[in-house]
Amino acid sequence: MFHIVRDPLTLTIMIILPILLLLILGFAISTEIRNTPFVVFDQSRSAASSKFIAKMDGNAYFTLVNALSSESDLETAFHRGECKLALILPADFGDNVPYREAVDIQLVVDASDPNEGSTLVSYVQLIAAQYQKELIGRASAPDLIQIETKMLYNPQMKGMYQIVPGMIGLIMMLICAYMTSISIAKEKELGTMEILLVSPLRPALIILAKAVPYLFISLTDVALSLLVAYFILGIPIAGNIALIVLLSLVYTLSALALGLLISTVAETQQEAMVLSGIGLMLPSMLLSNLIFPVESMPIPLQAFSYIVPARWYIDGLRDIMIKGLGFKAIVLDFFILLSMCFLLFFVSIKKFKNRL
Amino acid sequence: MAMWILNDLLNMKSIISIHHVSKSYEGRTPVTALQDISLQINKGELFGLIGPDGAGKTSLFRILTTLLLADLGNASIDGMDVVKDFRKIRMYIGYMPGRFSLYQDLTVEENLKFFADVFNTTIAANYDMISPIYGQLAPFKNRRAGKLSGGMKQKLALCCALIHKPYILFLDEPTTGVDPVSRKEFWQMLRALKEQNITIMVSTPYMDEAALCDRIALIQAGKIMQVDAPAQVIANYPFRLYKAKASNNYRLLETVKEQDNILLSYISGDQVRLVFKENDRRIDFPGIELEEVEPTIEDCFIQLMKNESD
Amino acid sequence: MKVIEVHNLTKTFGSFTAVDHVSFEVAEGEIFGFLGANGAGKTTVIRMLCGLLAPTSGKGSVVGYDVSKKAEDVKKNIGYMSQKFSLYEDLSPVENMELFGGIYGMNRKQINKKTEEIIKDLGLTKERRSLVGSLPLGIRQKVAFAVSTFHSPKVVFLDEPTAGVDPMSRRIFWEMIYRASDRGTTFFVTTHYMDEAEYCNRISIMVDGSIKVLDTPERLKNNFGAGTMDEVFQILAGKSKNQVQ
């Protein structure tokens, strides 16, 4: 019965893992959204409109990142990924609102994540109601500020649009990292690695030879997933296919490198499974914006999410696939993945031992 | 240091030189695998490392095949240092690890081709070397390696270790778990390879296989107890050894264990083996036949083990 | 009394006949050597006798229980130890014995009594609390033997129990077998060490799924005009179809 105490690794995993999972999920699932970046195009430039904008910015939910001077800047702001929400105040805002006349304001929301989109809209409605109450002392009157909402990217608010690129990212991690690490650990377990090591083959060559087939299979899988997404799930592929392939290539390579890194540490298939399961699959699932927005997690988790490749890939893939954005929008994602890829390959080749 | 270099130069025929090699493993239960091992193996020799599991055979093989670093001491293969010149050594040696280390899901032929590719050669280029062995496997060349019988697997592993024409061959327990008939065939193959001037270092826990080697080292608990030709090891046995047979050998053994004129007693097959302390060959058991016998390698091993533990 | 009775026992896997009409009997207290080349069908016979595999046809009974109908009763009355039979390496010898005693339904008092008996018998006092993983192979085999005989089974199956063990430990191991057999336990042993075959009271040699010879080592050697059991084995197993292929 106390047998298990003799195996510290298993015990640690069994005790630490539930706590970690609960904490992450607990924080992650809270649907509250904080510090959403927004831009404003204020056509009235009045005291009343400034006050409304200040009320938005002063709120924990929103952070003003830019004030636009023309409606055409709106598109660029979204394309650069600068904001998730834009507020357009009409020219008559300052003339009407203080005198209790209704105005129409326009709200443009990034709805590639439909849940997040509708939450944002309801927050703005709440702020508008508070504003009205402060201004005229009562809230029960008919709404002075009529909000017209425009959902960007995903007008039908389909959850699938959000999930599918995320799933592709997760599947690629599963195939590249998980499978590669297990296949190398298997060679160690069966003893074939011993013979390869005794041969004149260079370690780098052994590593590459193991990685190449998995790279091809993974890229085939990206293609298959996109075909399924397009033809069966009916998800439009808004952006450039070549760009998707490019981004997927760097991501796949960094996932492969991660798998190789794990296999340099793991001696058995079981170890490889546990390491890649907990070390890769969990972060890729929880800290990648796949299901839960990272922005609303505690700072340490947010910081950790920066080193999760899936976060960058899923972000970039959504930009291209759903939003139809160009290379500029994914420049950060791309270069971060690229440098991760080089770093990980370098480390795993260094760590791969020439001896047993 | 200078001494052993000089020694090597004088002793030109030695091809594997091991000098004061020690190795231990850290861990929850630290293990001393090798303690101050020194050995010279001659060119063209079929050299046997004889000892039970855990004696340190595999550690020594891994150090010589450049897979493991010794804690102390040094070793060289044909003048190449096992640490510094490991890349060069890897081109010239063949190695068959203790576990069956071939790709179970590849066929016989695919395995062979794979290892030919690894060493940048072809099956055809080296066919003469493996043909006597591969000839027996040829009918099964499309069978998956995992589906072969124990003896067949060992033959295939030997072919794979030979595919790049190494001139030194390391075989770590090639006959363990293989039935006596296949074992005998395997040793015939090794004798044939020796004719082709290949130096072979082979380890085995089966003491009866020692007789088939040119020279042997008896290894136990990380120490080499004796190195010599098998016949000489037997000649070195320091006592007169007797065998005794009785109707119930177990009861006989219980009896002799109580007697104080007996130095060594153990059962061996259908008999009890005895070494007397002096000329007093009294045995207090009815109806026994006592006869002096020539010791086997196993008797020598037991005597040396006892020596070490005293 | 016959402890093992086998009559025309047969096992086929698809078109392959692994065990072909095998018949033999083993008496109480006997040490029975069960030899054969790799793939001759030894393991299949042992699995059937231990109630792990149902025979295709024929009859087998162990300690009076039919192996195909009363597999559970068979299992309760036998001990099993193989080269691969691993003890729990992160438990001590005593803990291993307690565990297996518990599995076989012994109560606390019985377990404690038997543990002390065996520890004293086999001279394991010094190692009783060390983790099995840290013990030398020879000692581990002793512990494995202790565990497989802990519930006082009538028959013990030993599948290559001494593979890789040093010569002195092997002899000590056989002394343990002799001692238990002297007290009436029956042993059914497979081994690749031909000299060990000579320790057995009777030997059968299996070739290609059937038993080719069954007799005492002495008579087998005489019949084949051979000096050792190894020679007898080479003569018989060398004729196998498997070897010729």
Task: Give a description of the structure.
The complex is a heterotrimer of chains A (356), B (310) and C (245). Helices cover 63% and strands 10% of the residues of chain A. Chain A is built from 13 helices and five strands. A five-stranded mixed beta sheet of chain A has the order 2-1-3-4-5, sandwiched between helices. The model of chain A has no long low-confidence stretch (mean pLDDT 81). Chain B folds into two domains: 2-229, P-loop containing nucleotide triphosphate hydrolases (Rossmann fold), CATH 3.40.50.300; 238-294, Alpha-Beta Plaits (2-Layer Sandwich). Chain B contains ten helices and 14 strands. Chain B has helices at residues 2-10, 57-64, 86-92, 108-118, 127-137, 150-162, 180-195, 230-235, 249-258, 297-309, and strands at 14-25, 31-42, 46-50, 72-77, 80-81, 93-96, 168-171, 199-204, 215-220, 223-228, 241-245, 262-268, 271-276, 289-293. In chain B, the strands form three sheets. Chain B has a six-stranded mixed beta sheet with strand order 6-7-8-3-9-10, with helices on both faces. In chain B, strands 2-1-4-5 form a four-stranded antiparallel beta sheet, covered by helices on one side. In chain B, α7 (180-195) links the parallel β7 (168-171) and β8 (199-204). The model of chain B has no long low-confidence stretch (mean pLDDT 89). Chain C has 245 residues and is an alpha/beta fold. Chain C has two domains: 1-77 and 155-178 and 186-245, Rossmann fold, CATH 3.40.50; 84-152, no CATH class. Chains B and C meet through α7, α9, β12 and α10 of B and α6, α7 and α9 of C.
The side-by-side strand order for the widest beta sheet of chain B comes to 6-7-8-3-9-10
Largest sheet of chain C: 6 strands, mixed
Q: How much of the sequence of chain C is in beta strands?
A: 25-35%
Main sheet attributes: strand count, strand direction, barrel closure of chain B: 6 strands, mixed
What characteristic shape of chain B results from the CA principal axes? globular
Q: Would you identify the regions of chain B where 5 or more consecutive residues have pLDDT less than 50? A: none
How far the N terminus sits from the C terminus of chain C, by CA atoms, comes to 42 Å
Question: What average pLDDT do the residues of chain C reach?
Answer: 88
CATH architecture of the largest domain in chain C: 3-Layer(aba) Sandwich
Structural class of chain C: alpha/beta
* Estimated radius of gyration of chain B: 22 Å
Question: Which range does the strand content of chain B fall in?
Answer: 25-35%
Q: Helix-strand pattern of chain B, N to C?
A: HEEEHEEHEHHHEHEEEHEHEEEH
H/E series of chain C, N to C?
EEEHEEHEHHHEHEHEEHHH
- Summed up, the helix count of chain B is 10
* Most residues in contact, chain pair and counts: B-C, 39 and 46 residues
Q: Number of domains in the coordinates of chain B?
A: 2
Structural class of chain B: alpha/beta
The overall average pLDDT of chain B, rounded, is 89
